[in-house]
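Sample pair:
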Amino acid sequence: MSPITHFLASWTLAESCVEDRRERFWICLTGLAPDLDGLGVIADIINGLLGREPTHYFFIYHHFLFHGLFGALLMVAIARLAGVARAKALLLVFLSFHLHLICDFFGARGPTRDDLWVIHYFGPFTYKGTIWWTHQWPLNGWQNMLITVLLLVGDA
């Protein structure tokens, strides 16, 4: 799903479950955090613009480095170090991260039927535990747009 939808979903979770601003911030931020492994696209674009040898960091690392248990535990640890202390809030950080994974599981397909985004749950340590759904709807599919609209209306 789009980062906007991930933001709205994690924000809705945070707003409905906790009152503390720091806890809400970390729950919301964690809903976006898995996509940090997609920032390799910046290096790919810059290398292409500079005429360098093409790189494929986005293709290699997106959904592999942080889209799994390692990323979830890392975000819980970072939130704890940042002052989130209540067990309920840390559990919601963990759940917000997994909400992102669930959204990507259902709605992150590329433009063709064969362009599925898989989740390497135990990455970056192993490819075991890789999950996907062959009926994934497209990233720009009506389902994702409807979910985004519903989240916008619900937060209004």
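The chain has one domain: 3-155.
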